[in-house]
Amino acid sequence: MISDIARRSFGVPSRLIPVEELSGSSAGSRMPEIRPERLTVEIAERVAAVCPTTALKLESHGDRLNLMLDYGECIGCGRCIAVGEGAVMAANRLQCCGGSREQLICSWDVRTGTEQVRAGSPERIRAEIFSWVGRALNIRQLDSGSCNGCEAEIVALTNPYYDLERFGIHFVASPKHADMLLVTGPVTRNMAEAVKKTYEATPHPKLVVAVGACGCGGGIFAASPEVVGGVSSVLPVDGYIPGCPPTPAMLVSGILEVMRRLTGTRRR
Ligand code: SF4
Ligand code: SF4
Fold this sequence. Notes:
- It is a single chain.
- By secondary structure, the chain is an alpha/beta fold.
- It has two domains: 32-117; 129-262, Rossmann fold (3-Layer(aba) Sandwich).
- The chain has nine helices and 13 strands.
- It has helices at 2-11, 19-22, 41-50, 79-83, 126-132, 149-156, 189-201, 212-217, 248-262; strands at residues 32-34, 56-61, 64-70, 88-90, 105-109, 114-117, 137-143, 169-171, 180-184, 187-188, 207-211, 227-229, 239-241.
- The strands form four sheets. It has a five-stranded parallel β-sheet with strand order 8-7-9-11-13, with helices on both faces. Strands 2-3-5-6 form a four-stranded antiparallel β-sheet, with helices on one face.
- The longest helix has 15 residues, at 248-262.
- It is globular and about 65 Å long.
- One iron/sulfur cluster binds next to helix 6 and helix 8.
């Protein structure tokens, strides 16, 4: 019986997601992507009006009318996509995961359809990814007050489909064994001290990655009196991964991007 099951299992082809499909993928996150050539003033006003978090907003600069999109505030509700008439689409690829807070903000001139700020879009290949991960990386996941949505996606990183361990990246139970803190949730008043202590317990050099809209800036809980703010309100942050929650592919891309940016230039 058991030998039959084992024989059948070995005969099933691997469903491990190819590494080149992981890098930069945001499929399923419902994060928006702007098609500037289809933008009109009416559409820009409409999408900014329906956005519940002010991730999308309009700003006038002289003759220019800019549509700003802050991925760090976007919760992936999809409302802008529903009313965007093709000028706002669900993004299948997002290159800003793991970048600085500024790189999460994009801007388009609505009248000319030109992008004002472009998030970095390096085309990454499998060989490059393995060269960035030249050694094992130990991650301590730290929940500073999340709804558990981000954790559910982080747990998926260890399943046989995403298999984060193939990059030499492991989750550890203690900050004393960690190279990176992956911090989810808005930082609540109750957790602020514990977050700082966890950071202090992590040996140098160490990296901090803020995960999700909550980690980037407090997300939907930002206005709560029980919330101190995003992760950067209590810790120095090396990279931000937007989404509510970010998909596992966005998490992998963000972690790898932080490592790529900071290899050889770790600050602490
Ligand atoms: S998907 Fe993001 S940008 Fe679009 S309306 Fe929702 S929160 Fe705003
Ligand atoms: S970013 Fe979204 S999924 Fe993650 S903790 Fe905040 S509310 Fe929950």
